[in-house]
């Protein structure tokens, strides 16, 4: 996941001190859904960004999204949860969510590699309560929060696997590296060597934990929808299950970070050799990408998100004007509108 530009540690500490003691009536007033027209003023945008850096008030144990009150999440020290607390559905990948929910409803069996705190796993369970969804998350703290969020929303159709998906079937465990600023609830934790994670996200590693490993080939068996957000290991996992992709051609949601040369090359091969078509994701529509453009396209700058969708048949559809479940999508990921 690409994070918004961080503020300085001193400013972040000050924001945490303020937000931690923030009275709930004040926080609730600030959490009101932002209007799409007219756009919020510069002062409010700056205030919300500072509050987001401060996390969630300490008196909050669980919270409902301001623009999707049927969804409840636990309050924890997590960038994902802080974004959702302050901005609602608008706060975390709003451009991707309607397409994910639509594909989950159409899939018989789906797999999410890199579930983090479980936001997209919860959305999968809500969109398709009768389907089978497997969510894989290696970091034990993130997995614990994911499990709590599933329970809080009474979702029983999601199986949580607390392990790292790996391309090599041999190891029983692998070492997960965590940068210093991610030690609370990591948004970024990665495997090395072989990661294509951008250098600015992989530096300053101060912790390493051993976690169970599971062969990705075993996980993908029987699935027709796969979502990958695995911090630079997408190319390795897709290459390991290439036979399954060629035979079954499941729909793929793949995070494509800048500088991921091997991943972009592999995605182009899937289009040229295995019958896939690739689409950039926007909130309004999917944009067909020529395989040759995958090597250089700057997804975030051009389309507003970092993910592509690959499918062999017709592209997924969402009800106009947007998926009704999670509500409005009037913001960009990671920033106040």
Quick summary:
It comes from Geodermatophilus ruber. The protein has helices at residues 9-20, 24-30, 42-53, 79-87, 97-106, 119-127, 140-152, 199-202, 216-220, 234-240, 242-248, 261-273, 299-303; strands spanning 62-65, 68-74, 109-113, 132-136, 158-161, 164-166, 173-179, 190-191, 205-215, 225-228, 251-255, 277-281, 286-289, 307-311. The chain has 337 residues and is α/β, with parallel strands linked by helices.
Would you mind describing this structure in some detail?
Helix 1 packs across helix 3 (42-53), helix 3 runs antiparallel to helix 4 (79-87) and helix 10 runs parallel beside helix 12. Strand 12 and strand 13 form a beta hairpin. This protein is an alpha/beta fold. The protein contains 13 helices and 14 strands. Mean pLDDT is 86; it is low at 1-6 and 321-337. The chain starts with 8 loop residues before the first helix and ends in a 26-residue tail after the last strand. The chain has helices at 9-20, 24-30, 42-53, 79-87, 97-106, 119-127, 140-152, 199-202, 216-220, 234-240, 242-248, 261-273, 299-303; strands at residues 62-65, 68-74, 109-113, 132-136, 158-161, 164-166, 173-179, 190-191, 205-215, 225-228, 251-255, 277-281, 286-289, 307-311. The chain has a domain at 9-91. The protein is globular.
Write the layout of secondary structure elements.
Layout: H1 9-20, H2 24-30, H3 42-53, E1 62-65, E2 68-74, H4 79-87, H5 97-106, E3 109-113, H6 119-127, E4 132-136, H7 140-152, E5 158-161, E6 164-166, E7 173-179, E8 190-191, H8 199-202, E9 205-215, H9 216-220, E10 225-228, H10 234-240, H11 242-248, E11 251-255, H12 261-273, E12 277-281, E13 286-289, H13 299-303, E14 307-311
Parallel strand pairs: 3-4, 3-10, 4-5, 6-9, 10-11
Antiparallel strand pairs: 1-2, 7-8, 7-9, 11-14, 12-13, 12-14
Helix pairs in contact: 1-3, 3-4, 5-6, 10-12
């Amino acid at each position: 996941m690409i994070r918004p530009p961080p503020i300085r540690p001193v400013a972040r500490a000050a924001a945490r001190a303020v937000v931690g003691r923030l009275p709930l009536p004040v926080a609730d007033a600030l959490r009101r859904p932002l209007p799409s027209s007219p756009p919020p003023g510069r002062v409010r945008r700056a205030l919300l960004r500072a509050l987001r850096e401060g996390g969630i008030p300490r008196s909050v144990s669980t919270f409902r999204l301001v623009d999707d009150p049927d969804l409840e999440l636990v309050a924890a020290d997590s960038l994902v949860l802080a974004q959702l607390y302050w901005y609602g559905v608008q706060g975390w990948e709003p451009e991707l969510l309607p397409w994910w929910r639509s594909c989950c409803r159409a899939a018989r069996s789906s797999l999410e590699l890199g579930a983090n705190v479980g936001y997209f796993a919860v959305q999968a369970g809500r969109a398709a309560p009768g389907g089978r969804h497997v969510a894989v998350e290696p970091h034990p703290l993130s997995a614990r929060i994911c499990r709590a969020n599933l329970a809080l929303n009474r979702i029983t159709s999601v199986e949580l696997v607390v392990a790292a998906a790996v391309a090599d079937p041999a190891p029983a465990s692998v070492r997960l590296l965590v940068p210093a600023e991610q030690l609370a609830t990591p948004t970024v934790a990665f495997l090395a060597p072989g990661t294509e994670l951008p250098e600015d996200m992989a530096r300053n590693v101060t912790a390493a934990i051993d976690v169970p490993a599971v062969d990705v080939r075993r996980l993908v068996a029987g699935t027709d929808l796969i979502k990958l957000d695995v911090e630079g290991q997408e190319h390795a996992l897709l290459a390991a299950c290439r036979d399954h992709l060629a035979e079954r051609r499941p729909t793929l949601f793949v995070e494509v970070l800048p500088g991921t040369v091997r991943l972009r090359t592999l995605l182009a091969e899937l289009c040229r050799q295995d019958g896939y078509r690739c689409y950039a994701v926007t909130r309004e529509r999917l944009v067909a990408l020529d395989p040759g453009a995958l090597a250089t396209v700057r997804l975030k700058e051009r389309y507003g998100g970092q993910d592509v969708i690959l499918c062999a048949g017709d592209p997924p559809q969402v009800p106009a004007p947007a998926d009704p479940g999670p509500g409005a999508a009037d913001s960009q990921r990671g920033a106040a509108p």
